[in-house]
């Protein structure tokens, strides 16, 4: 019994995470780069309803690896110096939260304009800045990868 549990645990840990082509997998999330300038809410709608992956949303950056990697990739793929990410606050008196309506557990702000409530990544260094939601920018969507667990190793 214990040997079977160990075997199952090894099979699960060796599962392959997959992103749809040409999306990129980085540190546990898949990212879709969209070089079509849209407002914050238009970009969110595109990620939710028009992205190739059905469970996509405006990009969530969960750590410095995501922030820096996305910025450097966006710098190569976009002509804009900024791109929308999934961070906003409903009003200037609220805390920032993710597009999934969760309070931030990670933040990478370089500049917060008190009158602006929508976060964009800066391609030069990955820092977040606040911009007006009606500004049209390219954007990045993110989603959890599919896991092909156990398929290849079961007898």
From TrEMBL:
Domain C-type lectin intervals: 26-142
PROSITE patterns reported in the protein's UniProt record: C_TYPE_LECTIN_2
InterPro entries (UniProt xref): C-type_lectin-like, C-type_lectin-like/link_sf, CTDL_fold
UniProt keyword annotations, A-Z: Signal
Signal peptide: 1-17
Keyword Phosphoprotein: no
Metal-binding found in the keyword field: no
Name assigned to this protein: C-type lectin domain-containing protein
Organism: Caenorhabditis briggsae
């Amino acid at each position: 019994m214990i040997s079977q549990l160990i075997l199952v645990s090894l099979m699960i840990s060796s599962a392959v995470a997959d992103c749809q082509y040409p999306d990129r997998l980085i540190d546990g999330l898949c990212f879709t780069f969209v070089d079509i300038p849209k407002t914050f809410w238009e970009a969110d709608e595109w990620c939710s309803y028009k992205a190739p992956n059905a469970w996509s949303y405006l990009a969530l950056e969960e750590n410095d690896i995501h922030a820096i990697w996305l910025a450097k990739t966006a710098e190569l793929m976009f002509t804009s110096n900024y791109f929308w990410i999934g961070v906003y606050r409903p009003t200037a008196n609220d805390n920032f939260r993710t597009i999934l309506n969760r309070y931030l557990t990670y933040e990478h702000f370089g500049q917060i304009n008190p009158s602006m409530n929508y976060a964009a990544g800066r391609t030069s260094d990955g820092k977040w800045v606040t911009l007006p939601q009606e500004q049209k920018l390219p954007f990045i969507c993110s989603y959890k990868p599919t896991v092909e667990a156990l398929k290849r190793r079961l007898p």
